[in-house]
C4-dicarboxylate transporter (Bradyrhizobium nanningense), 433 residues
Amino acid sequence: MTALSVDKPSGRAWWKELWIQVLIAMAAGIALGIVSPETGAKMQPFGDAFIKAIRMLIAPIIFCTVVHGIAHMADMARVGRVAVKAIVYFEIMTTIALIIGLIAVNLLKPGVGMNIDPASINASAIEPYVKQTGAIGFVPFLMNIVPATFIGAFAEGNILQVLFISVLCGFALVQLGKHGAPLVHLIDIAAKMVFAVVGFVMWAAPIGAFGAIAFTVGKFGVGSLASLGKLLGGFYLTCVMFIVVALGPVARLCGFSLVKLIRYIWEELLICIATTSSETVLPRMLIKLEKAGCEKSVVGLVIPTGYSFNLDGTCLYLAAATVFLAQATNTPFGLAEQIELLLILLVTSKGAAGIAGAAFVVLAATLSATGTIPVTSVALVLGIHRLMSQGLTPTNLIGNAVATIAIAKWEGALDGDRLRRVLDGEEQAAAMA
């Protein structure tokens, strides 16, 4: 059994559970970051190496999963129907997230009273992020879906480009019919091989979590919390509120418990929080949601698409951070400006797929698009961006898990009895060899 197993064998020692190991590693990383911040900051390579190891596998996993799923679905109209339903759902939920984020930051007012003079801000630290904002927008985003070369999409690890190629290849195999059967079988074998490799890499998850948390606390933690604690605490509260107010009703309508779903993906959430990257658990989420009763083809389409279009936590961050900066710099930002901001964010929040530090880059692009809030003011949140990411990434993950189940049910591709049994712990998801 590999570390990718998502079951809980009877009699297994508690300390062998992955989530226990990750939790212990996170505690050790926090302790090191507090006791010796300089040493903690030097642990960054452990976290980065783990993230890179997982990211190198994401493109082949998406390709194999989507191509195999579409080929077995053998219905191109159904693929298009699932995609349309997913996009509609994503747009509704991200709009709700933006509205909740705006309401929360207006009620909590974390930036009021800071009275920051934009002219006094040292903008040198944010120059690398501001330089990337020119490529962000709806049209560049659509153009970026089509890769320059077939291999280039895999080399760059761009999720949407790999998904685009995968859908085309899946459609081609459907048209080939029985002539494409040997290739479909080969892709299925390749998928099993790649998932086995993921299992090997996941053994390093506690080490990656330790390095990432030690770096975060050592470099940003204590000082950042003291100076911008109100914004950080308010943002975490907003994420919890969104999960309860927006995702809770969706879960109830689909007939499952959101609390039980969160318990089911608890290991993945801990890894997300530690590494501030939801990509590190994408392979595990594909497996877990399929084992929980969602049809494989639907999971393969919805999860990768959601990683670019259904970023609920990122939307909460963008709304909260933008209004916070307006408050902190005493920039007039009334209802009309915030409605305009909502419309801008509906575009810019979709335009940073595949960009490193996407949420921060989009924040800079959003300020530039508003034309009222000084772009240099983003330097105020640079120090706690990673700490805020520890709230937005698990929110993104929960949002995509709920979305997959909801769309599977909407499409009639959900085994409701199996979902209930798995979430209740009556039936454990089978181990991946």
Q: What stands out?
A: The chain has one domain: 14-424. Residues 68 and 185 are 8 Å apart (CA to CA). The mean pLDDT is 84. The first helix runs from residue 18 to 35.
